[in-house]
Amino acid sequence: YTEAWDADKTSIHVMPDTPTILLAKANAANVSHKHYQKAWDEAKAKSYDIRADAIPIKQAKASRDIASEYKYKQTHEKEKGHYIGCKTAQEDPKLSQATRAMLLQNDRLYKKAYNDSKTQIHIPVDAMSVQAAKECQTLVSDVDYRQYLHQWTCLPDQNDVIHARKAYDLQSDAIYKSDLEWLRGIGWLPNDSPEVRRVKQAQDLLSDNVYRTPIDSLKYTSIVDSPDVVLAKANAEQVS
């Protein structure tokens, strides 16, 4: 009975042109590493045809020769011992000529004489430009603008001087506070004075602790024959 059903379960028929199958094939092609490197593998399988006089080969050789330390020092090693030198660099005419050309081309030495001559300026004192500059400086100067016209001299016993000294003493902060230093300690009151007791009484009245006395700290007893107690006892006897 189940043999036909088991055989049918193993055979699945799916149409090859359904959108799901096409999408799965496209995703498999995109994800496949072998398909991704297919063109590269085909290019590697072909033989390279690079000539010895090709531009990339020449460029690589030139770069290698430039970077090589041996090639860099090869000319210097060959020319060793062939120099016709002098004892010092100053005696060599070529080196002296090169040094002189370098000094001529040096901008700092070229402008040295000009910079030295700029600091040496000789102008006569009575020149018109100097006089005009002095007059302008005098007119513009704030010191000369605020120059006092007269220098007064006052005697120490003059009435104006005495009056000014008294005014300064009244305005002085040290003299103003000298009375305060002298009055310190005069306003002391004993502990049992009426003013102190009045302040303490007012403090007790305004104190929150005294105003809010805890109920459990007060001692009280209930009245035995109060109307509430009598009524409660009568109700208890009636309900009993």
UniProtKB/TrEMBL annotation:
GO terms for biological process: cardiac muscle thin filament assembly. GO terms for molecular function: actin filament binding. It holds the Pfam family Nebulin. The keyword Repeat applies. InterPro entries: NEBU/NEBL, Nebulin-like, Nebulin_repeat. GO terms for cellular component: Z disc. It comes from the Eukaryota. Signal peptide: none annotated. Keywords: Actin-binding, Repeat. This is NEBU protein. It comes from Eurystomus gularis.
